[in-house]
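Assess this one:
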Amino acid sequence: MDFKDFGFDASLLEGIDAMNYTSTTPIQELAIPVILQGKDIIATAQTGTGKTAAFLLPIIHELVTGQHAEDTINTLILVPTRELAVQITQNLDAFSYFTPVSSMAIYGGGDGISYEAEKRALSKGADIVVCTPGRLISHLMAGYVRLEGLRHLVLDEADRMLDMGFHDDIIKIISYLPKDRQTLLFSATMPQSMRQLGMKITREPEEISISISKPPERIIQRALIVYEPQKIPMIQHLLKNIKFHKMVVFCSSKDSVKKLSRDLNRSGFKNEEIHSDLEQQEREQVLARFRSGRTNILIATDILSRGIDIEDIDVVINYDVPHDGEDYVHRIGRTARAETDGTAFTLVSEREQYKLKVIEDLLGYPVPKGEVPAALGATPEYNPVKRKDNRPRGGGNGGGNSGGGNKKKRPFRNRRPSGPGKPKDGGAA
C-alpha cells in the first residue's frame, strides 16, 4: 500500500518522500485508517514494525488540515525513556519539516535555560509534545501546563512504562487531560495489567495486533557454550575472525559493560559503551559516533535493546544470556534491519544454560550451537538442567534508564533535521 492512498496532505507527503518511505508496513496499513477516523486504538506491535510512523503521520495530517487551538498542547506522546523520546522527535521533525506543525521534546539532560524553554512551550502551547512521564509530572505540578485543548494522547512502549513503575504517573497525567480526546496505546506485549490499563483509559478502542514473537529468519543465530572465564577470550576471537560493519555487544548490567569495554580496549579493540551512568549528552554523542561509523563496536546494556533504531548493525553478541525470550528477541533484532542479513552470537555459561533453554522453548526451536575454538580449552556440555543457581530471573539488572526523564534537555522546536537518512523500506521508524 502506498502512503498516498491515505489521502495525506501534500506537505506531509513531501516529508514522507524526503524520508524515502515507500510502502506501508502491516501496522501502518491497519492503524492509520483507524486513527484518521478518530477512533481509539490498543495496538500490540514491537519495535521495528513501523509503529512510530503509524501514529505520527495521521496526527500530523490532522493537525495540518483540521482546526485546533494554538495556545494549548494538541498532542501528547508519552514514552518510557529519553532515548526513545529523541528518536521519535527526530522522526517527527523530518516528517513535519514541510508543514507548520510545531513540536517539543521533554526529557532528561540540559540546564535551567532548557527548563525555561520547556516551561514556555508547555504554558503557551505546542502542536506535539514528546515526553517521559516523570519529567511531565514535574511541570504539571507547577500548574502552568496547557492541556485543556488536548486532542491526541499516545502511549508508546506502554508495557515498558509499566515495567519501569510509571503506572501511577500515567494515571496522574491522564487526570489532567480532557475526556474528549483520542487515545492511542502501543505496546510490544499485552499482559493482563497492560490490557486493564488500556481499557481504563480508552473509549471503545479498536484492537490491532502485529505480533513478532520470533526473530526474522535472516538472522543467523549461534549459541557458544563456554565457561564464564572464557567469555572475553571468545569475544576477542570473534572480533579477530569475523567480518562486520557495526557490532553491538549486550550485557545485562552496567558493571559488566564497563569491565568488558575496558578489557577490549586494552586488547586493542576500540569500542565505546552506553549505559545509565552516562549523562544524556554523553549517550547522544556515543550514539552519533556509532551511527556515523566513527565507532563500530558498541557495548551496551538493555537500554539500547528496545526503541532505538540504528542501521547497518550486522553482528550482535549477547555477552550474557538475556533474562527472558522477549529480551532476546529485542536484542538480536537490532541486526538484520531493512531486509539485510545479520548474525547473533550468545555466550552461554554453565549457570545460564537453563535460561537459554527457556528462550529456545519460546522460539519453538533450539538455537544452533556454534564451535568454540580449541585454543580456548575444554568447554562445558550443553545440559540445561533447572537448578537454583541458573533459574531465570525476571527484569533487568540495573542497566536501563529508570529515571523516566527527570533531567533537563534542550527542546526540539520543529527544526530542520541534520539529515533524515534513509529509513527502512516500508517506513519502520
About this structure: Confidence is low (pLDDT under 50) at residues 388-429. The chain has 14 helices and 13 strands. The longest strand covers residues 219-225. The radius of gyration is 22 Å.
